[in-house]
Amino acid sequence: MAMGDLAGADAALEEFDKFSGFAPLNIISSASFTDFAGRADLAEENFKKTLDATGQLNLRLTDANGKFLTAPWSR
Q1: In-domain check, residue 1
Q2: What does the angle CA 38 – CA 8 – CA 3 come to, to the nearest 5 degrees?
């Protein structure tokens, strides 16, 4: 992702699909990548998907989502 390859970063995250229970990690990582890439629309969608996938809030998700929502570029 640091090289600007959002598609490559998402493809690398697909490796998590092989393991049960890693969907929330995959989605929140994708949310962070899309936020870093300046795609606030996709990042917001992925943060919402993460909330749906986990079924509950935890500290890491709350922190990441809160930082995204309060960032000036996310509005």
Answers
A1: no
A2: 60
